[in-house]
Amino acid sequence: MAVVFQAIGADTALSSTNLFVSKRTHFSYRQSLPERKTSVCAVRSNGISFSGLNSRGRKAEPLITNAVATKAESPTASAASKPGHELLLYEALREGLDEEMERDPTVWVLGEDVGHYGGSYKVTKGLAEKYGDLRVLDTPICENSFTGMAIGAAMNGLRPIIEGMNMGFLLLAFNQISNNCGMLHYTSGGQFTIPVVIRGPGGVGRHLGPEHSQRLESYFQSIPGIQMVACSTPYNAKGLMKAAIRSKNPVIFFEHVLLYNIKERIPDEEYVLNLEEAEMVRPGEQVTILTYSRMRYHVMQAAQTLVNKGYDPEVIDIRSLKPFDLYTIGNSVKKTHKVLIVEECMQTGGIGASLMAAIDENFHDYLDARIVCLSSQNVPTPYPGKLEEQTLVQPPKIVTAVEQLCASTGSCQ
Amino acid sequence: MASAFYTINTIQPGHRTANKTFNNPNSPFLGSSRKLRLVPFSNTIQSAASVRRQSTIVAVSSSDVVKKKKTNSSFSHSDLLITREEGLELFEDMVLGRGFEDMCAQMYYRGKMFGFVHLYNGQEAVSTGFIKLLTKEDSVVSTYRDHVHALSKGVPARQVMSELFGKTTGCCRGQGGSMHMFSKEFNVLGGFAFIGEGIPVATGAAFTSKYRREVLKEADSDHVTLAFFGDGTCNNGQFFECLNMAALWKLPIVFVVENNLWAIGMSHLRATSDPEIWKKGPAFGMPGVHVDGMDVLKVREVAKEAIGRARRGEGPTLIECETYRFRGHSLADPDELRDPVEKSHYATRDPITALKKYMFEHNLAKEDEFKAIEKKIEEMMEDAVEFADASPLPPRPQLLENVFADPKGFGIGPDGRYRCEDPKFTQGTAHV
User: Between residues 227 and 266 of chain A, which touch chain B (CB distance below 8 Å)?
Assistant: First the structure.
């Protein structure tokens, strides 16, 4: 069983020496958890456990699709063959940025405090010293205009990576993102491409208040012409970042404030993941749980509880929020016939709502029960911690939902 | 470096009031009333403090420039602004712009083009005055009033007309329409429907020029970008944000304000606390220049200096062109708000007649040459309309093309293949 890492508090940029585990994990197998302040537990994105202990003795299978293969997308093989190196998610992002900037001199980063300050979450730390002030550009505080500027540069052959210091700030850039980023390729009849990456931390943090806790994926999802991905582990963060930078399409890359300090061992050799594919986190037979970003960890924690109770959930991190990987999702639905979606964005008009519609449209006949979607409450995220917790989907709620779902179809255990 | 911006004219505040009285309606070149006041000007702003001291930096009347200008031409007149060839080129470009827009109006009322069409009649001096100084690699960014900017930059009239008719042979395959003229070949970067939205794009194009020179080490990268926009845009945040960034990084861009006094039905004076837009340049550390936008020669002089500045890496310039649109905001606008006195005043300052007059007076061309040019343009317009009429409408598959540069963005379908790999995908029968 994969180790689930419970998200750590990280309301400001934390260095790796300052980590702490906010909640105790329940796992029974051996791991080093000496005291409260400890280094984080590593997560295997492909479901392979460290200790080899697994309640059903099953090893995870690598994701297989018929889609166009990308090179080196075989996490099992590559991870097992070489030792790899351990790092935190924000370092993985930085590695991805660094490698791409080295490889292609037209790649550049812009945003508030990305240069001399190193990025408010340290994702771009050290890059300005290496590449100079023009390639890692500290902008004034004018999201709409500097996003537009990046789009103008992209039209002229450069490859900008726009950082929103917090994804919520990109609401100010909505004009440029919707009209120019998404549509300009089409409006110009294909003459100009906009290979931008718009990235930044979003999601609900710890006591950050309503405006810094926004989830913009639901607002952006209708914009035609853009792709959206959400990373959740260092492995997929680096791989997706590289893919997003290399893509000719504009990509909005969602990171999460509380996931920057996740540690994982990733391969030494270069790898690029597929922007449009979902990730099989834990194969199972009984129920399909679809999730992304931070909720993956809540789901995995719930999954451990469920496994202990004798259930067999299949967990898929959809990663690609637009477009959906209907192949991976469809295969899972055809197998389990029950779907639970766990997401962090609001219930109204969220990613889950679109996913429910897509699954119902394509796989209605395979479903034994209605699709259940657990989302955040439709409220501004409150400041006090207990209330903030209540706006999100917590693992016990996921466990209950799965139990109810299985009970309703009479197919548990 | 010698600068043309060394003489100052200040515009008297409130010289353009709602109840306008126009001085000198018979003199096409003087425009607004001004007092001449000489104040020294420095065009390298070193610090915010010096900016404040220099806040009277302002405008130029190109007739002042002309008096001091030395000419290398072989003509005996010492104050000729253009050669014969240049004059004819400018004339032809303006007649092209005017003729095209008039043809657009005809075609619109005949039901050949649709939606929002914004015509440029009366403002040709700005487009011609600036864009004819550019090279092919320089970029132009405009707003929805962009037909003439595209034409001046070199986009063939056929392509622009086809685009307006919505045909596949249009410069944007018919997908953009009147408000979205793009041309990669001629570096026309749009064509934007929301005002202000193009200014950051122009700033980005200018940034690319600087990036190519400094990071990619392309030594010949000195391309200049011109951003055209109106008086209404000058109250928009993106305008100010881009003035700041352009001046901060000394980007090779020229901000050209086509102040035609009206934003649909909103008078500039009712919308703006300080209507003198050129003054906003020095606030950001760049020269602000006011010029008579109905006079192509004055515009050209000012443009030369500004474009030269940008090309030399000295940074941006804000140029306010006082101009006027003879037609309504768009072809759907009944144009009832504007005072007929105002309209007739500016009609006497028609830039095409003014240029013709100048060239006659200086014996640069004869009437039959002008007639020949006008005839040539007429024929070009007929040809453009015929071409557009004969061109095919976009087929159904074109709906899904160009949404993504990489069509893998449509995702993986339930069968495991990328949707775009389905041969029937663009015909729209495949599920999206």
Answer: 227, 247-249
Q: Given 3-state DSSP classes, what are the helix, strand and coil percentages for chain A, each rounded to the nearest 5?
A: 35, 15, 50
How far is Cα A247 from Cα A323, in angstroms, rounded to an integer? 14
Residues of chain A numbered 77-106 and touching chain B (CB < 8 Å): 105-106
Regions of chain B with pLDDT less than 50: 1-77
Tell me the domain boundaries of chain A: 85-266, 276-408
Over the stretch A313-368, which tens digit does the pLDDT of each residue have?
Answer: 999 999 999 999 999 999 999 999 999 999 999 999 999 999 999 999 999 999 99
What's the mean pLDDT in A105-122? 96
Q: How near does any CA of chain A get to the CA of B228, in Å?
A: 15
Span B380-416, pLDDT tens digits: 999 999 999 999 999 988 888 899 999 999 999 999 9
| CA B114 – CA A103 distance, rounded (Å) | 47
pLDDT digits (tens, 9 = 90+) for B41-76: 344 334 444 334 333 444 444 444 444 344 444 444
Q: What backbone torsions phi and psi does residue B147 show, to the nearest 5 degrees?
A: -60, -45
Which residues in chain B are contacts of A226 at CB distance < 8 A?
409
Give the integer Cα–Cα distance in Å for B36 and B9. Answer: 5
The top-level CATH class assigned to A85-266 is alpha beta
Average pLDDT, chain A: 84
Which residue, among A156, A193, A249, would best test binding to B if mutated, counting the most B CBs under 10 Å from its CB? A156
Q: Do domains A85-266 and A276-408 have the same CATH topology?
A: yes
**pTM listed for this prediction:** 0.82
Task: Tell me the count of A-B CB pairs closer than 8 A.
Answer: 201
Catalytic residues of A: 143, 212
ipTM value, please give it: 0.83
Cβ distance B405 to A248 less than 8 Å, yes or no, reads yes
Partner residue facing A277 (CB), from B172, B412, B421: B412
Which residues in chain A (195-214) have CB-CB distances under 8 A to chain B?
195
Which of A108, A186, A196, A351 is the best residue to mutate to test the B interface, defined by the most B CB atoms within 10 Å of its own CB?
A: A186
Q: How far apart are CA B42 and CA B49, in angstroms?
A: 13
Within 10 Å of residue B78's Cβ, how many Cβ atoms?
A: 11
The CATH code that applies to domain A276-408 is: 3.40.50.920
Residue of B nearest to A332 (CA): B414
Q: Is residue A285 pLDDT above 70, yes or no?
A: yes
Query: What is the pLDDT at residue B79?
Result: 67
Q: Is A323 on the interface with B (CB under 8 A)?
A: yes
How many angstroms separate the CA atoms of B253 and B247, rounded? Answer: 9
Q: How far apart are CA B373 and CA B203, in angstroms?
A: 36
